[in-house]
Amino acid sequence: MKTKIKIDVVSDVVCPWCAIGYKRLEQAITEMGIQDKIELAWQPFELNPNMPPEGQNVEEHITEKYGSTPEQQKESKAHMTAVGAELGFKFDYFKDMRMVNTFDAHVLLDYAKGQGKQTALKMRLMNSFFGERKDVSNRSVLKEELEAVGLNATEALAVLDNDDMRNKIKFEENYWKNLGVSSVPTVVFNRKSAVNGAQPVAVYKQILTELLESE
Question: Cβ atoms within 10 A of the Cβ of 91, count?
Answer without folding.
Answer: 19
